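tool=predict chain=A
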Amino acid sequence: MTEHKHTPDSPEPNDATAGGAESAASEADQPSAAGAEPAPEEPRSPREAELEAELADAKDRLLRALAETENLRRRAMRDLEEAHKYAITNFARELLEVADNLSRALDAVPPRARDEIDFIKNLADGIVMTEKALLTSFERHQIAKVMPEIGEKFDHNRHQAMFEVETAEQPPGTVAQVLQPGYTIAERLLRPALVGVAKAPGAKPSEPDGDDGAERAAESEHEASAQGGARPGEQGDTTV
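tool=predict ok
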């Protein structure tokens, strides 16, 4: 068997040299990354720009339509809620006269006769119970009485001045006398309270029917016609 021996004169293979030659060959085959140019972009057609503009316009119209639909829904809900609250306005206004008559009937009974005569006492107790039941029904339908106190500041939104009273006991511009209580339904004025307003002795009478009063009356009439109600102090349509 022949043995191959390496002599000092025989060259040994160099692995590093071989690897370098292979990498150089591969680098020569591949184009340089630094020298590569990007591919040119394709030009946009006019039709593509048209479609994008149409899409943006359609999106804008859709958003506007959605906003309008939401506004209509909210308006319808508000109108429905107000219709439920104020549907019985005219009917309630008619019942106020019944409550007034019950109160007048009780005031007309002399206290002495009520204490001494059983028939009068029973009749007065029946009127009291009827008035109480009526006021309880008012409360269930959010109808509240407006009873100003003596000395309370006059409020043209809830009170109606019938006359002026010269007095030094109450400050000018306050309630000096109450003729008739008022009522509200769901925080909206149903009937103003009729009052007498205090004024300083010797002062000139005020003119409530001047420009300010006319403007307030016009505003009240416009609001009442828009909401289906009546002006303070006037009877509205009695049809329910």
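The beta strands are 143-146, 159-166, 175-180, 182-185, 188-191, 193-199. The chain has a mean pLDDT of 77.
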